[in-house]
Amino acid sequence: MRRTLCDRRFIRLPGDRREARWSGAVILLGVLAFGSPAGAQATDDGWHVTFAPYVMGASMSGTAGVRGFEAKVDLPASEIFSNLQMGFDGYIGVQKGDWGFGVDGIYMALGASTNYVNIDPGQAAFTFLASRLVAPNLDLTLGARWNLVRSRIEFKGNSPVFPGTVVEDTYQWVDAVIGIDWRLPIGRRWIFGLPANVGGFGISSKITVDVFPNVQYQLTKRAWLGAGWRLLYVNYQTGHDDGPPVLNSDSFLYKVVSTGPVIGMLFRF
Fold first, then answer.
1. Strands 190-199 and 214-218, how do they pair?
2. How far apart are CA 242 and CA 222, in angstroms?
3. How many helices (H) and strands (E) does the chain have?
């Protein structure tokens, strides 16, 4: 799982919500990340590859809107798997010395029904992150998250509003993100990790937040087992800024929290 299990960016083993202006933060991040990291540990200069498949038993809650039609999304974790149509999660990354680059992918296609509405939300998020070691067991990260969201809302025939109406659309956008990746050893085989990033800053999404506290246990030299809790929040909207959305207009709203337990494996070569 992404930064969930032990690799060069997770731990150095023995022997081995307000919209914000982000330009200043990026400049500061660049100074810290690309300058000489005072106090950082020395790392080996070899290449390392990490592959981590994982699953997330997520709940989803919030509001989805398509062409001015809106519906509440409320899928508790106990119902996610009964509504899951397709899903995959995973991470792949490379590291060399103090530098790293990785791609984390999440995709969930869901289907749910209420008394009056059928909702088909589908969410994909691919996060591309470069990392730089700046202190022992601490990386700064900088990158972009490519979001793809498909929403389909069907008002049933007994719905008190818009009976029989079906609306759907797909939107995609890119958010700049900045963050940290911190690791804390707990004994010889256990590690606590806390990767987190924030983005959007009102430029694309109003705000997006990804936080992933986790613990990892070393099984073999190249395999780790990890578990944690992930929260991904996205607040993106277009066509809503100047007032209430107009029906059948080119408006889109996705203000959703996906959160839940995560378990997976990591293999490092």
1. antiparallel
2. 54
3. 2, 14
CA distances from 179 to 29, 88, 127, 165, 210 (A): 9, 24, 12, 42, 9
Q: Are 261 and 57 in contact (CB under 8 A)?
A: yes
- Phi/psi for 28 (5° steps) reads -60, -45
- Tens digits of per-residue pLDDT, 169-197? 888 999 999 999 999 999 899 999 999 99
Nearest residue to 104 (alpha-carbon basis) of 92, 88, 95, 119: 92
Handedness of CA 114, 118, 119, 120 (dihedral sign): positive
What is the residue extent of each domain of the chain? 23-268
Domain 23-268, CATH among 2.60.40.1230, 3.20.70.20, 2.40.160.20, 2.10.109.10 = 2.40.160.20
Do 233 and 207 touch, CB atoms closer than 8 A?
yes
Q: Where are the beta strands (DSSP E) in 57-201?
A: 59-66, 69-75, 84-96, 99-110, 112-113, 117-135, 138-155, 166-186, 190-199
Q: Are 171 and 251 in contact (CB under 8 A)?
A: no
Give residue 143's Cα distance to chain centre. Answer: 12
What is the Cα–Cα distance from 219 to 189, expressed in whole angstroms? 8
User: Per DSSP, what are the bridge partners of residue 112?
Assistant: 119
Q: What percent of the chain has pLDDT over 70?
A: 74
pLDDT tens profile 50-94: 999 988 877 778 888 888 888 777 766 566 555 555 567 889 999
The tokens of 171 are what?
Answer: 């939107």
